TrEMBL record:
The keyword Protein biosynthesis does not apply. One of its GO terms (molecular function) is peroxidase activity. This is Non-heme chloroperoxidase. Residues 24-245 form the AB hydrolase-1 domain. It comes from the Bacteria. Keywords: Oxidoreductase, Peroxidase. The keyword Ribonucleoprotein does not apply. SUPFAM superfamilies: alpha/beta-Hydrolases (SSF53474). InterPro entries: AB_hydrolase, AB_hydrolase_1, AB_hydrolase_fold.
Amino acid sequence: MPYIKRNDELELFYKDWGRKDAQAIFFHHGWPLSADDWDNQLLFFLNKGYRVIASDRRGHGRSSQIDTGHDMDHYADDVAHIVSELNLENVIHVGHSAGGGQIVRYVAKHGPEKTAKIVLIGAVPPLMVQTEANPNGLPKETFDGFQVQLATNRAHFFKELPSGPFYGYNTAPETTDEAVIQNWWRQAMMGGAKAQYDGIVAFSQTDFTNDLKGIDLPCLIMHGDADQVVPYKTSSVLAHDLVKNSVLKIYEGLSHGMPTINHDIINADILTFIEH
């Protein structure tokens, strides 16, 4: 399997499919999953002639289960390293949930020169946690509870999330797809508990406000109005206001997991954005 070495402790797993001279699309997964969460998109855009890339974040999936650096700055540095090692230019970055935050921090920290466009799907920016400056955010106790559940019984916690709010199966049980739940659980359990524990703080308490203000690239922001994990009114709506050159699409009735269970809609809209 292909790996890119960052240092003696960290190797990053990645997929890189398609012609190396084709337009590159780099997919960034959400917490606590892996590059496998993009399999549908990888195949779809590969068949459209694109070069498709996805990596497992440090500590997640098949990447090294290192115990340090589980924060957005290190995630951004890892992305920059992969972009450099693969000699990528003019990249379209697509990120879901925490992966959207990873993209925003990458562009803010390493510059927009190698980036063509950005797609944020159910993404966490500008800030998830409730603060004095962000009174409509989610209470810190919510995320503290995630950490307690992960540390107490990770396997159970990672069964409850996809069975319920992640895909909206708790509000529409008749749509439940057990294979989707099992695949989510499989990906999550591949990763390291320490990375996932620390990652809860990374995705919930990182403030991306200034990062977003500095972005002037074409940006498509997509969010379901039935998202129970990342509320759209306190994330994507605000992100759209901060990013100068952005388009916001809110999808009625779609959940946080819409790239998987509504891939036909999501893929078509990303393709339109890329090609126009």
